[in-house]
Amino acid sequence: MERRGIDVVLRVRRLARDQVALRLAERLRCEQAAEGVSGQCREAVHTATQHAREGEGLPGVTPERLAWHRAHVVELERARARADEALEAARRQVAEVRAEWVAAQREVEALEQIAARQAAERHAEQSRREQRELDELASARFSPPHDSRDTLR
């Protein structure tokens, strides 16, 4: 691949990697939000469960009120389960996008190595060419002049 070609490919792959990095950052924000919601749901279930247990032994708490507390705890547990499912889905998405980013990063690194190797090869070829030119100049300068008549004898 010629120099311009590898540079263009490398630039495009870096842009693609950066786009994946942006998606990864977004997925991480979503995961963090899901963790917050899950934690809030867990706390709400804990608090509601405590209130329901405390209410069982208190005088004046009607069976209807206790039933309401239990139903409330059940609803909160369902919300917590949904929040936990959303959190697991967010974690899977983060893992998928992170794997995609790692693959894109490896591709960029490989292309950078190819570009560096090609640059080194171009530099070495240029050095050889310059050395040949210098050798030819030195040879022409320090060689005895050739007489075309001498070669005919």
Radius of gyration, CA atoms, in whole angstroms: 37 Å
Terminal Cα span: 52 Å
Mean pLDDT: 89
Helix percent band: over 70%
Name of the CATH class: Mainly Alpha
Binned strand content: under 5%
Number of helices: 2
H/E element order: HH
Short description:
This protein starts with a helix and ends in an 11-residue tail after the last helix.
Protein architecture, described:
- The chain is mainly alpha-helical and 153 residues long.
- It has one domain (3-141): Helix Hairpins (Orthogonal Bundle), CATH 1.10.287.1700.
- The chain has helices at 3-56, 63-142.
- Helix 1 (3-56) runs antiparallel to helix 2.
- The protein is rod-shaped, with a radius of gyration of 37 Å.
- The two termini are 52 Å apart.
- The mean pLDDT is 89.
Characteristic terms for this protein:
2 helices; 88% helix; mainly alpha; 153 residues; Helix Hairpins
